[in-house]
Amino acid sequence: MATTHSMVAGTGRGLTRYCSSTSTSPSGESSVIWAKERLVEMDAAQRRLTYEVLDNNVGFKKWVATFEVVPIVEGGACEIQWSFVGEPPEGWNYESLVTFYDSSLQSISKKIEQALLMTSSV
Length: 122
Fold this sequence. Notes:
Blueprint: E1 3-6, E2 16-24, E3 30-43, E4 48-56, E5 63-71, E6 78-86, H1 94-120
Antiparallel strand pairs: 1-2, 2-3, 3-4, 4-5, 5-6
InterPro entries: LFS, Polyketide_cyclase/dehydratase, START-like_dom_sf
Protein name: Lachrymatory factor synthase
GO molecular function: protein phosphatase inhibitor activity
């Protein structure tokens, strides 16, 4: 996400935020995609958060997603698992939904990796 900011002061359950980024189509046209989200659950002990999309300009009607940090036994590493329940926007098939989220998750993954590298060098 290029832009994200809290819409309601505070932290924890019920917190809402606005996220946006610029998307470029295969033909080279740029457009801003945005979503307003609400935090449904945040469990620090389980390293998990769940959010729902309240409004967006992509076309999602109902969308709830969970991010969870899951330990990998070998080497003490971990992975981030993302799951969702929802319906794709009208006119989208499963493949276009996977392509959209694969691109988004690759971008998020790079940002997390960059943040971790900056933190470990401090």
